[in-house]
Amino acid sequence: MQDYPIGRTDIPWNEDEKDEWLESQTIQRSYADEVLSKFIRISKDFKKNHYGVLPIDASRYPLYAFTTSKWDVNKPNVLITGGVHGYETSGVQGAIEFLIHHAPRYSRHFNFIVAPCVSPWGYETVNRWTTNAYDPNRSFAPISFSAEAQLLMDFVKGFISSEAKALLAHFDLHETTDTDNSEFRPALAARDGLHIDKWQIPDGFYTVADTKKPQLSFQQAIIASVEKVTHIAPSDDEGRIIGAKIISTGVICYDKSSLLLCGGFTDAEYVTTTEVYPDSPNATPQSCIEAQVAAITGGLDFLLSHAK
């Protein structure tokens, strides 16, 4: 097991240790000030849907998704999710930036469902996990232990079912940070009573495609768009990124449905998980947000040219 202040060597956490972990978390920023307050700037072309609350504090953590107001059943449908891991700031802010400044012009061609901050408690506590020490991005199962995952799945599936048309694409916005090695992987090792090696954090942007439907040209279009904003992650000393084989510059694959990832819970034909590296000396908070937006617009431009 990695060194971690909670738990016993090689023994998974019990409920008392999970409670101890929860009690050690502190509020570090405001969901209301940094996320909810920006919604007023989103065009009336998009309807604000209140799809649930987090049970830890219903008044503090309402959940919202924006959908195209004048839904057109003849247009393809696109899902954008940010903040599945709440601490990954640019995913949240990038989704909002896209909604405010770019979504209106793309609405001529697509219907959108955008959930900017799936895990607001994680956003405020700068955390990867839920309050019950689950990773929401390993929790997109039919019956989930993560309220964040369950509520999002219920809303998206219910909405799409009512509109009688499947999703064409899903952009799931994430970051890879130095705290993966300093906090979150050690916590995971302690929680599960395992030894988990640190990995080489990639310096730059990359995408994670779905092993079953990688849509490589789509991923490459995203990389080409983001490359105009920030640098693309090179492979590590073993020719990999976070342990996965590179299938193209800045592109790796995960089997998303088997890993219960957010990117695997729909039947979307085109799926990408973006990964921004905010800790790079060459990155700024704004450039990270711009990279997320460039990933979305690059992918949408590709779909306009290539998808039926």
Mean pLDDT: 95
CATH class: Alpha Beta
CATH topology: Aminopeptidase
The Cα radius of gyration reads 19 Å
Task: Give the spatial strand order of the biggest sheet.
Answer: 1-2-4-3-5-10-6-9-8-7
Return the string of H and E elements. HHEEEHHEHHEHEHEEEEH
Q: Assign the CATH superfamily.
A: Zn peptidases
- Enumerate how many helices there are, as a single number: 9
Supply the CATH architecture: 3-Layer(aba) Sandwich
How would you classify the helix and strand content by structural class? Answer: alpha/beta
> Helix share of residues?
25-40%
Please state roughly what percent of the residues sit in beta strands, choosing from under 5%, 5-15%, 15-25%, 25-35%, 35-45% or over 45%.
15-25%
In whole angstroms, the N-to-C terminal distance is 49 Å
Largest sheet: 10 strands, mixed
**Number of DSSP strands?**
10
Shape: globular
Oligomer: single chain
Low-confidence stretches: none
Number of domains: 1
Task: Considering the chains and any ligands shown, give keywords for the structure.
Aminopeptidase, 32% helix, ten-stranded mixed sheet, globular, 308 residues, 19% strand, zinc, metal-binding, alpha/beta
Question: What is the topology?
Answer:
Elements: H1 15-23, H2 31-34, E1 46-53, E2 62-68, E3 77-82, H3 89-101, H4 103-106, E4 111-115, H5 120-125, H6 147-163, E5 167-175, H7 179-192, E6 206-210, H8 216-226, E7 240-241, E8 244-248, E9 251-254, E10 270-276, H9 285-306
Parallel strand pairs: 3-4, 3-5, 5-10, 6-9
Antiparallel strand pairs: 1-2, 2-4, 6-10, 7-8, 8-9
Helix pairs in contact: 3-9, 8-9
